[in-house]
Amino acid sequence: MAFKPQSDDESAMSEINVTPLVDVMLVLVIILLVTAPLLTQSVQVKLPKTTQTIADTQKQPLQLGIDAQGMVTLNKVAQTDLALQETNLKTELTKDAEIGVHLYADQAVVYGKVAEVMAIVQHAGISKIAFVTVEQ
User: Residues near 86 by Cβ (< 8 Å), separated by ≥ 6?
Assistant: First the structure.
């Protein structure tokens, strides 16, 4: 309830009373909180049975790793020459044009080394690259 100040002026009060608005909004929030869990319930259905399928292991991405000393490995095979790594990547690309690369880089590796390896992947023609990290 709004009170108007004591004055001789008998003009109408022009202030908005927000108390009913807040009450209505709180009721709407409570209704939302009560009904939201009901909307997320799943439908109980019986799924059809099928035969077991084998996962396609041919489409696995390449694992390109850089250890703390800067040694680059491709699928856990170390290679000191980066030009040879690029050749290996091109060979893998000819086998599968949609191949991807997962890059495992040690946190102690200098960023320049990571950029160099990324450039080799790009020069090999592979466009799909993902950085692999761990959760803390």
Answer: 120, 123, 124
115 in a structural domain: yes
Question: Which residue stretches of the chain are H helix?
Answer: 19-39, 82-95, 111-124
- Residue 127 is assigned to a structural domain of this protein: yes
Q: Is residue 38 part of a domain?
A: no
User: Tell me: the pLDDT tens digits for 5-54?
Assistant: 666 566 777 788 889 999 999 999 999 998 887 776 666 667 778 787 77
**Cα–Cα distance for residue pair 124/118, rounded to 1 Å:** 10
Q: At what angle do helices 111-124 and 82-95 cross, to 10 degrees?
A: 40
Alpha-carbon span 109 to 116, nearest angstrom: 12
Please give the residue range of the domain that contains residue 66.
58-131
CB of 121 closer than 8 Å to CB of 129: yes
Q: How far apart are CA 8 and CA 132, in angstroms?
A: 75
Any idea what the CATH number is for the domain that residue 97 is in?
3.30.420.270
